[in-house]
Design brief:
Elements: E1 19-23, E2 26-36, E3 40-49, E4 52-62, E5 71-78, E6 81-91, E7 94-98, E8 106-111, E9 114-120, E10 123-128
Antiparallel strand pairs: 1-2, 1-10, 2-3, 3-4, 4-5, 5-6, 6-7, 7-8, 8-9, 9-10
Amino acid sequence: MAKLGPYFGNHAGTLEITLQMFVGQFNVGSGSFTLFTDNEIDFRGSYSALGYSGTFIISIKLTDGKPAATSGPCTITLNTNTDPAATYEVNGVQLTIATKLNPTPVSIYANNGGTQINGISGHNLWIGQAEMA
């Protein structure tokens, strides 16, 4: 199975360190990784933007157990909903998750020293230690 680290930027080893969340150039909140391994990540944060506030959770667990696979099954949690029948696919530097929890696949890749997560409810989110370059 794929290793998650390369797709989540340089965040390995940053457990419990507060990271900033941006939508475009706007800082909308902060959060931290509570779990970061080769096959499982968990990020939890809070946001406030355009009159809306709440929590943001993304948790991914690759479940196929095949070290050389570039696609396979996974479990993803987006906020309070979990899809145990999601699938992942690796395409170069990008990890794509297809899930019934989102109308389009979620794309994840390292970007500007952080993690870019595109397509969650029509939004693109960047997570990092400093303002997005």
